[in-house]
Design goal:
Polyprenol reductase; 2% strand; transmembrane helix; 9 helices; two-stranded antiparallel sheet; mainly alpha; membrane; single chain
């Protein structure tokens, strides 16, 4: 596919190779996860509620992978112009909001389904609160252009992922522990520091505020490696492995006797 930038940036060949692979990998993984989820034997009524959540999250990762946005860059950047609509930060976050809300509810389902008799309500409201704060912080960052709300969002997801990983370890669910423990570690090591650095750099330049209308427009095309190096690792893990994390939650929910 021809590049849309008038001048290739430094390291653009690496970025384009990554970008070309990301959409195909994410879409293929999402389809595999959807097929496995549909074939999973349902043992509980809760599974019927959780199945659409897995499909929605998987679909959102596949859709977003074709137009990834460099969130660490201010202003935001894209690799190629694939259409004005899906390339804007607001449009990307609308799809993200649906997918990540589904993942948040799926994590709630797992904690509730595996909790003791006296615990479900506590875990449900705690999980809902964490997911709600995360989404609110993310939208705050998108609308006003500040990076720090994104750091707060990732901190919330760290707490949620850690809770699921600890519960998985307690119950002997090794795959849950590995997926969500690694996710929490990635958030702590990569995402949170990335957004904190972006916030500090923006504050020095005095360019933190971005009008709401600016978030509705397509960001500039930038295919340089320096622009994307902070976002490439987590975007790859999120879009390719994310659907599998949703699947392992769903399969464990399907094994529990808890009824919705």
């Amino acid at each position: 596919m021809a590049r849309t930038s008038s001048k290739a940036g430094p390291g653009s060949s690496v970025v384009h190779m990554w970008h070309d692979s990301l959409g195909f990998l994410s879409t293929s993984q999402a389809l595999c996860v959807a097929a496995k989820a549909l074939r999973t034997e349902s043992r509980t009524e809760l599974t019927q509620f959780a199945l659409p959540l897995v499909l929605l999250f998987s679909a959102s990762t596949a859709i977003r992978s074709w137009n990834p946005i460099a969130w660490a860059a201010r202003p935001y950047k894209i690799v190629r112009c694939r259409g004005r609509g899906m390339s804007s930060p607001i449009a990307d976050q609308c799809v993200s909001h649906l997918g990540e809300s589904a993942m948040g509810v799926l994590m709630c389902c797992y904690t509730v389904a595996t909790a003791d008799k006296d615990e479900p309500r506590l875990y449900l409201w705690l999980s809902v609160l964490i997911a709600a704060v995360a989404r609110a912080a993310c939208w705050c960052g998108v609308v006003n252009g500040y990076a720090m709300p994104h750091a707060a969002e990732e901190a919330c997801w760290t707490a949620a992922a850690s809770t699921v990983a600890i519960r998985g370890r307690t119950l002997g669910h090794a795959e849950i522990t590995v997926f969500f423990g690694c996710w929490a570690l990635c958030l702590v090591v990569v995402d949170v520091p990335m957004y904190v650095r972006a916030a500090l750099e923006n504050a020095k330049r005095g360019d933190c505020k971005v009008a709401i209308l600016k978030s509705l427009t397509r960001p500039p095309v930038d295919d340089s490696y320096d622009t994307w190096k902070d976002d490439m690792p987590w975007l790859t893990l999120y879009f390719v492995l994310g659907p599998w994390a949703a699947l392992v939650l769903y399969q464990r929910i399907a094994e529990t006797p808890w009824l919705l």
